[in-house]
Amino acid sequence: MSTVGWCPSTMSDQSICLSVYEFSTPEPSLTNMPPKTAQIRLVSSHPEVYEPCDDSFALVDALLADRAHLLKHRPSICMEIGCGSGYVITSLSLLLRESDVAPYYIATDINPHAARVTLQTLESHGCQAEVINTDIAFGLESRLHKSVDLIVVNPPYVPTPEEEVGSGGIAAAWAGGENGRKVIDRILPVADGLLSDKGWLYLLVLSANDPLELCLEMRKKGYASRIVLQRSTEEESLHIIKFWRDPEVLIEANECVEMRRREDGIVVDFSHFSPFSVWRNRIRDS
């Protein structure tokens, strides 16, 4: 049986009340021979929830292609931002069933109907997760700070008029504003705050979202990246990018930031000068 717990809102009037869904361990018969990914016939639906489509399948195929690395990665906390129908988070749970670490799964969506549909999809596959109705990870940043080992995101990426971004219902699943980047550019800093030192982020984007620029922006934060899967459909060209923290990239990023600050005249580093030479220059100038 499922249980639904409503978290009382203690924030401002504009904050979103978190809805947490948890349920009991499924019957053994449901877990004897799990499929590798979620079965479409068992995915729940709702008129206001985005159904699995080419982008959903591409993201799951990328996870499937990287499955051997995921099992070696041994993530303890896995999260999907924007879970929709629950197809991706359920598939991820099934893909990692052979892991010697039992990951804790969290899924979020701004659409309350999507939260309920995701719960139903998980249950129908004998999986479990904490499903939260919230905007990206609002209210979770402190609890999950630097502790999530794996984040998967199929964001709203379609270029649309700005006023469509964040609208209610199913439109929130695809409306991305100018260049389709409005929501993506909000998600990346949040993901950076949630990811652990060994954290991985799988992000699905369109060519129109400028994947190269996204990789360069994340590189400034110390992330290396690679395209795990690229797929073209009749309407769009999809890329699934994997990001991970890289110490060498972080050092390079810090050096670039320091160089830029010096060029802007914000920082003067006296560590390379003798204090006596600085003193002599002051006397000469006076």
From TrEMBL:
Provide an example Pfam family for this protein: MTS
GO biological process assignments: methylation
Q: What is its main location?
A: nucleus
GO CC, sorted alphabetically, is: eRF1 methyltransferase complex; nucleus
Keyword Nucleus appears in the UniProt entry: yes
**Which keywords annotate this record?**
Methyltransferase, Nucleus, S-adenosyl-L-methionine, Transferase
The record's SUPFAM superfamilies line, in alphabetical order, gives:
S-adenosyl-L-methionine-dependent methyltransferases
Q: Where is the signal peptide?
A: none
Q: What is this protein called?
A: N6-DNA-methyltransferase
Q: Which organism is it from?
A: Striga asiatica (Asiatic witchweed)
